[in-house]
């Protein structure tokens, strides 16, 4: 099994889908920015690896890991049983969860039950899409990115979006998307992990770096920068 005996390489090619602020996005200069980007760069520094990002569509990330065309992925990706069948994950680095967004003047929707037979926009390949697919009678529209799904809701073409709460809240708070609100409780508790090809020697390298950064304050500093807590 060659994958298990490979040495950690000097450069880590890391996939990300950069339309998921505040975790990953392109800033006004077209540069990658966000919590995940800072975290991954700090992991590289801590572990003595050069990090080279590669932008991919979210639903192309796991296939790229399986094909071995990238060494890792950091993309607000939830650690799920299903994904663990095909890739490995680092230890969890962020706690998140799904939330329902509706138009700001909507008074009908607060729970998943209220979404039966409604039109819902989701991002393809995500835990939000999976959750929406289980709602009886719901009509799903799928988009390549979360901002596109949220814009569809702002345009009034769907009744709701199911997406990661921190990302939807950031879109509303930043003014990137107008006229929306988050309703009800979080639908899930999810943990993000850095995904790697099965058997990658870099799982341990990344976990050790994360552990060091959680102990020496580097993680807290990056968290504070993006979430202010
Ligand atoms: N956390 C969600 C998932 O893993 C969404 C991730 C994303 O859109 N970048 O499916």
Automatic annotation (TrEMBL):
<protein>
    <submittedName>
        <fullName>Basic amino acid ABC transporter substrate-binding protein</fullName>
    </submittedName>
</protein>
<comment type="similarity">
    <text>Belongs to the bacterial solute-binding protein 3 family.</text>
</comment>
<feature type="domain" description="Solute-binding protein family 3/N-terminal">
    <location>
        <begin position="11"/>
        <end position="229"/>
    </location>
</feature>
<dbReference type="GO" id="GO:0030313">
    <property type="term" value="C:cell envelope"/>
</dbReference>
<feature type="domain" description="Ionotropic glutamate receptor C-terminal">
    <location>
        <begin position="11"/>
        <end position="229"/>
    </location>
</feature>
<dbReference type="GO" id="GO:0015276">
    <property type="term" value="F:ligand-gated monoatomic ion channel activity"/>
</dbReference>
<dbReference type="GO" id="GO:0016020">
    <property type="term" value="C:membrane"/>
</dbReference>
<keyword id="KW-0732">Signal</keyword>
């Amino acid at each position: 099994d060659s994958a298990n005996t490979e040495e950690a390489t000097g450069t880590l090619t890391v996939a990300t889908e950069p339309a998921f602020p505040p975790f990953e996005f392109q800033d006004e200069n077209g540069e990658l920015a966000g919590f995940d980007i800072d975290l991954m760069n700090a992991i590289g520094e801590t572990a003595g690896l050069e990090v080279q990002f590669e932008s991919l569509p979210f639903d192309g990330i796991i296939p790229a890991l399986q094909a071995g065309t990238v060494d890792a992925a950091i993309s607000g990706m939830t650690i799920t049983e299903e994904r663990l069948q095909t890739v490995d994950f680092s230890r969890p680095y962020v706690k998140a969860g799904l939330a329902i967004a509706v138009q700001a003047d909507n008074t009908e929707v607060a729970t998943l039950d209220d979404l039966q037979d409604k039109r819902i926009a989701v991002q393809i390949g995500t835990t939000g899409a999976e959750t929406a697919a289980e709602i009886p009678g719901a009509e799903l529209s799928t988009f390549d990115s979360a901002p596109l799904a949220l814009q569809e809701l702002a345009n009034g073409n769907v009744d709701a979006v199911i997406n990661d709460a921190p990302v939807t809240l950031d879109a509303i708070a930043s003014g990137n998307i107008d006229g929306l609100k988050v309703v009800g409780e979080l639908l899930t508790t999810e943990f993000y992990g850095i995904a790697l090809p099965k058997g990658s020697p870099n799982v341990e390298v990344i976990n050790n770096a994360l552990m060091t950064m959680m102990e020496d304050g580097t993680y807290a500093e990056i968290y504070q920068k993006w979430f202010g807590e």
